[in-house]
DNA replication ATP-dependent helicase/nuclease
Amino acid sequence: NNLAYYLTQEVNHMMSTDDQVIYQLGKLPKPINNQRACTTCAHLLNCSIYQRKQSDIVYQENHVMKTLVPETLQHLAESDLNYFTH
């Protein structure tokens, strides 16, 4: 079951060399590419924060999240994003 697999992925944390805690988020499936569904989704902010913090996500040129994530998060500072993902 795909959903069960992704729900079992945990957030890992480790200490950096300067004694800062670094969090590695669990993996989720690739984001959907649906303008209508994503722009009205109640989870858009959380989804955008999660995608921004995932360094391995590469969007195709026409993927809706390529523009929607920055637009959704433009009012947040990096410290705000770190707060939500710790």
Notes: Strands lie at 12-15, 21-24. The chain has one domain: 2-84. The helical segments are 2-7, 35-39, 44-53, 65-73, 78-84.
